[in-house]
Amino acid sequence: MPGLTLAEPDYITLALELAVREVAGWPQILDEQQGRIQNPDRKVQFEFVRPALSADLAVRDAFFARLADVRNRRRETWVLQAVGYLHHPLRAPASEKYITPSLELLTEIQRTGDIFFPKRWTDATLGGHQSASAARRVTDFLEKLPENYQERLRRIILSSSDDLIRLRRVRER
What we know:
The chain has helices at about 10-20, 25-35, 40-50, 55-65, 75-85, 90-95, 100-105, 105-110, 115-125, 130-145, 150-170. By secondary structure, it is mostly helical.
C-alpha cells in the first residue's frame, strides 16, 4: 500500500503469521526474515519462537518439552509468544495434548516467574481452543486438584478457561 511503512517488528510478525498459516513457501519466508533481522535481541527471539511454528509435530513437541525447564522460560514474553503459536486456533487439535501438562506446570511457573506469568501462560495456552475436548481437559484437571492446591492458581485457571467452558456448555444444549 502506498504510504504504508513497515518496521522490522512488523515484518517479523507478518512472517510468523504466514508461517502458522503454512502459506506456500512459508519456510523460505522464515529463512529470509531471519536473515533480514538487524536487531540482535529480535533475532534471538525469532530463533526461540521458530520451533513453535514448525509443521513437524515432533519439533513442536520437543519445543514444548523444553519449556518444563525454568532456564527455557527466562524470557517470558518470548515464551508467551511461542505458546500462543503452539496453541494457535489452526493448531488447536494437535496442541490439546499440551493443555494438561501446561496446567501442571502452573505451580512451578508461579514459583519461578513474574507475578503475572501464570495468568499469561494460562491465557496463551487456552486462548486458541474452542473444542469440547479441550474444555474437558481443563475441567478434568480442576476436578482432580488436591485440596491444598493454591486458590490463586485455581482462580487463574477458571478465569482463563471461562470462555472455553461456557462455549462447551452452549454447544451441549
